[in-house]
Amino acid sequence: LNLGSLMERRGDREGALAQWRQVADEPGTAPDLLVHAWNNLGRLLETMRRFPESEDSLKASLRINPRQPD
């Protein structure tokens, strides 16, 4: 997750997305990390105006933890 955040700060959006997808796709990843990865994906995809993908990512996050704060 941290590497993805660093990549995003450096302007490597696609690299950040790839890092967070890797976390989200890794079997056995802790639920709190999955939520964080899916939320990061959703937020960055939204800024990139990739709205359907963003919505899918945020829905995946909510399926893991539907009681997230706003």
Low confidence ranges:
none
Percentage beta strand? under 5%
- Count of beta strands: 0
Spell out the helices and strands N to C. Answer: HHHH
Mean pLDDT: 96
The outline comes out as globular
* Number of helices in the DSSP assignment: 4
The helix-and-strand class reads: mainly alpha
Q: Please summarize the sheet with the most strands.
A: none
Report the helical percentage.
over 70%
C-alpha end-to-end distance:
21 Å
Give me the Rg, rounded. 11 Å
Describe the structure in your own words.
The protein has 70 residues and is mainly alpha-helical. The protein is built from four helices and no strands. The mean pLDDT is 96.
Topology:
Blueprint: H1 2-9, H2 13-25, H3 31-47, H4 51-64
Can you give me a brief rundown of this structure?
By secondary structure, the chain is mostly helical.
Which short descriptors sum up this protein?
70 residues; 4 helices; 74% helix; mainly alpha; globular
